[in-house]
Specification:
It is built from three helices and six strands. Helices cover 24% and strands 40% of the residues. By secondary structure, the protein is of the alpha+beta class. The protein has a six-stranded mixed beta sheet, covered by helices on one side. The protein starts with a strand and ends in a 9-residue tail after the last helix.
């Protein structure tokens, strides 16, 4: 058994269990001193965690280690790195697996990704403000530097 931390649309139980049938919700938590940012992911943008000044809502799941192999389809190695974080929680100290985006350009997500985040946050009754903040920062960058999508000026 391993612990997997999700902070994106895969906080939604049904969505995660499509990839990892053994996934069971272990706990909800807030990651201190983090920021949610949107970075380029092929033709859209996806959220990732970076050092910041917010508390980012997230979910910790238990799952069979064999299910982690299926996560490469969701978090491809060329864009994401797998890390193990040692988290101090109300339930003790846990070593959790987390997928973090490598340094791709900041970008604004398409509606599909925003809707996935909304559904996940709603399912867990999380405060949506950190997603709104990330969307605001992405929009500001887009206005300042131009679009970051392939086939355009950046």
């Amino acid at each position: 058994m391993v612990y997997l931390l999700t902070y994106d649309g895969y906080m939604k139980e049904e969505k995660l269990q499509e990839m990892c049938p053994s996934a069971i919700l272990f706990m909800q938590c807030g990651l201190k001193d983090c920021a949610l940012e949107f970075r380029k992911f092929y033709e859209t943008a996806m959220p990732t965690l970076e050092v910041g000044y917010e508390i980012v809502p997230s979910v910790i799941w238990t799952l069979e280690e064999s299910d982690l192999q299926d996560m490469n389809a969701v978090y491809p190695n060329e864009i994401y790195e797998r890390a193990v974080w040692n988290l101090k929680t109300e339930k003790g100290v846990l070593d959790v697996m987390v997928f973090l985006m490598r340094e791709t350009p900041f970008a604004f997500p398409k509606e599909k990704e925003v809707e996935a985040m909304e559904e996940a946050y709603e399912e867990h009754s999380f405060d949506y403000s950190c997603v709104e903040n990330a969307l605001d920062r992405a929009k500001d960058r887009e206005e300042t530097y131009g679009t970051l999508y392939q086939g355009t000026d950046r």
